[in-house]
Amino acid sequence: MTSVAAVDSAALLKQHFGFDVFKPGQQAVIDHLLAGRSAAAVFPTGGGKSVCYQLPAMALPGVTLVVSPLIALMKDQIDALAARGIAAIRLDSTLDADGYRDAMDRIRRGEVRLLYVAPERFANERFRQVLGQLRVSLFAIDEAHCISEWGHNFRPDYLKLAGFARDAKAERVLALTATATDKVLRDIRQVFDIAPECAIRTGFYRPNLTLLLTPVERRERDAQLLARLRQREPGPAIVYVTLQKTAERVARDLAAAGFDAHAYHAGMKPEKRTEVQDRFIQSDCGVVVATIAFGMGIDKADIRSVYHYNLPKSLESYSQEIGRAGRDGEPAICETFACPDDLGALENFAYGDTPTLDAVHAMIRDVFSQGVSFDLSHHTLASTHDLRMLVARTLLTYLELLGHLEGGTPFYATYRFRPLIPSKDILATFQGDRREFLTALFKQADKAKVWFDVDVDVAARNLSTSRERIIAALDYLGEKQMLIVEAAGVRHRYRVLEQPQDLAALAKKLHDRTLNREASEVQRLQQVVDLVELDGCQVAALGAYFGDHCEPCGHCSWCLSGRKPAKLAARPEVPIDDGIWGQLEPLRRSHPEILSDPRAVARLLCGISTPWLTQAKLTRDPLFARLEDAPFATVLREAESRSAAAMMG
Known about the structure:
46% helix
C-alpha cells in the first residue's frame, strides 16, 4: 500500500479548496489516509466530510471511488469539483447512453481522479470488469451507517461493500456518516476493518442553530408555517414533509402566498428535480418543500431555516436534516411542528416493511429448492411472495450472514443492441479472428423492428466462449459508437453453503428479525416524541444520543421557555366501526390467499400496499386505506382477535 504521508495536506487544502485551515477532525482523517490506513469520519452535517476524500484524491495515485446513494450529492459535488479544475465524474441512472459512454472512455483513459457511483452500480458486471482494471487508491463510502442493522437506514447493498472494496484491491477505505451512535460506529469499524484510533468523531453541538420543537394541532399547522416564513429574516428555507402529495400541496399554498416555493420529491421526473435543486442553490430566498429525498449532500451554506412540517422519523433523520441549516456559521432556525396526527403515517413506513411469517417461509422454501448454484431476479422473488423489494433483498442478505448462502456477481439476463451503422461496415473494421467472432455473434441475435436481442448465456454456449468475452465485445462496439447497447433483467447468483435442517425454524428466526426491526423503527419515532416533550435541554440530549457531551445550550425550546417542558397533544382516537369487518368478509372469501393473515388485513385497512394487493387491484377497493388514520398496531390487534375468534367459532 502506498503511503504519501509526506504530502503537505494544508497546502493542498489551500491550493484546491481555498481554505486556510481544516475543520475539526478533517486533518486527522486525512493524515490516516495519506499514511495508508483506513479511517472513519463521524462529522455532523456541514462538518466537511467530503474534503476528507476529495483532498487525498489529489495526492494519491489512481482513482478515488466514492460510493453514495445520493444522486443529488454526486451532481452537486462534481459541479463544484469541475469549477476547481478537478476531474470527477459520476455513473448513475440519470446518464443517457452518450453520457455513460463518455464517462467510461474517460475512466479507461485514466483522466478521472474521483469516480462517484451508487451501491447498485456494483450489480453491473460491465462496471465490475472495468473496476478490476483500475488502481483504486481510496474507496470512500458515504452514508456508512447504512451498513448497520442498528442504524436508522439499513441497506443490504451496503453490507457487501467491504467485499467489493477487497475485489477492487482498494488500498484504503474511508467510511463517512453524520449519524452514528457508538453501536453503529462499532459495526462500521468491524465491517471495514478500521482501527479504533482511526475512527474520528467530532462534536455534535452547533451554537448558531436555534432548535424549536413546537407542539401544534393539524388545523393550525399551515397558518403557523406561513406566519414563521413571513415574520423571520428572509433567506433560503427547506420545509420537510413526509408524503409526496403533502409536498405538492404545501408548495402550491406557499407559492399562492407569494413565496418562491417549489416541491421536490422522488415521484418527480429527474430533470424537474434537477431544475428545482439548481434554482434553489442559486436563490437567496427560495423555499423547497421536500420529502427527505432533498438536501443530502447539497452544498448550500446560507440556508437560514429548516422546518419540519411533519415529524421526522428518527433522531438520526432529524439531526441530518437540521444540519443543512446555517452551514456558513451564521444564525439559522430549525423548527419542528410536532403534530400527533403524523404518527400513523410514519409508523406505517415501519409496519409496511414487515412481511407475514407465511411469506418468509414460502420465500426461503423457494430459494432452497433451486439447487446448489442458481440465479434469480429479486423483483420476481419479491412479487411472487408478496414482499417489498427491500425486504426480499434484506432476507437474502440475512441468509448470507447466517452462512446458508454465498452471493456471486450479478449479471444481466438479456442484452439488446441497435446498430448505428450497417453491420457490414462494422465487420469491415475488423480482421481475422475478431471479425469471425463478431460475425458469429451477430448471427446469434434475434431481430425485432429496430433492436437485436441476444441471450448472452445461450450465445456463449453456441460459440464455445465466455459470456465475459461477448459482453466485452458489445461494450467495445458501444464505446466506438457503432452500436447502442442496453442491458436488462438483473439476476443475482447464489450458491448454497449450508442447507437448512428446519425451514420452518429458519423462517421463524428471520421473521423475528423483521419484527425486531419493526419495533426498533417504531421506537425511533417515539424517541422524537420524547425529545419534543423532554424536561431538559434538547440540544444536550441530542448530543448525548450521538455520544457527545453538551451543556444546556440556551437556544432550544426548553432553554428558551424558561426550562419548561412542552406537551404534545393527545393522539386522536380513530374509532373502528364494527361494520368494516362485515364488509371485509366477502373480500377475504374471494382472495383467501392474500387476506388469510391478520397482518395482511391490517395492511389493507391501513392503506399499506404490497405486491399482492396491487396485483389483485385491492388497492382500488373502497376498504383500502379505510383506517389509514388509525394506529396500525390497534388495527392489527383487532384483526388478530377476530381471526382467532373465527377459528374458535
